[in-house]
Amino acid sequence: MNTTVKQAVVLTSGGLDSTTCLAIARDQGYRCHTLAFDYGQKHKAELDAGIRISRALGAGDHKIIRIDLASIGGSALTDPKIAVPDHPTRGIPVTYVPARNTVFLSLALGWAEVLGACDIFIGVNAVDYSGYPDCRPAFIEAFQDLANLATKAGVEGERFRIHAPLLHLSKADIIRTGVRLGLDYGMTVSCYSADEEGRACGVCDACRLRREGFREAEIPDPTRYRPGSPFA
């Protein structure tokens, strides 16, 4: 592997967390290659946001991979028959996409091996994480072990590292970190029901966590809300 340049693959959804993760990786001196997925999600505006963010933050390459997770359904983010909740729910919410982070990290691992990069960044969070099981520390640790067992590079002595720098931060702390690094969060799209222009609904779980984060951080919320939203 090429060790002369510190390179990383950064999963970039176009949302607040992944954008902060990209800014952190860049601040740590990595040449970042960003990876997004068109996986059948209803909120496609995040893909356009990911392109803009990657350009603005100077990513070396930006790749969008198509995966048809909608064909297996099981999530309000991919199945038109399941509505995105407009209020908090108990347990693992219907916005959980089965195996999503496992699939995403697997493809990021493949691209990292091709690029000669040993580092992969993902913006998962175990504090304000909506109850998703693939956002926990145990999952990240297990996938890192898998990465070093299941790759040619790992067998030949390289060591892959899965970085989750937001894992133990509150949403307010994530926002403070991004602001310190000069991020414009107005570029990001977090809403599960964003319209084609990327405007937020203001009522889904992602919107609620985002708005509470800005309030707790005492930083003005730059989110664009669509007409009819309670915050428009």
TrEMBL record:
Zn(2+) binds at C191, C201, C204, C207. The keyword Manganese does not apply. One of its GO terms (molecular function) is zinc ion binding. Gene3D superfamilies: HUPs. Pathway: Purine metabolism; 7-cyano-7-deazaguanine biosynthesis. Catalyzes the ATP-dependent conversion of 7-carboxy-7-deazaguanine (CDG) to 7-cyano-7-deazaguanine (preQ(0)). This is 7-cyano-7-deazaguanine synthase. It comes from Thioalbus denitrificans.
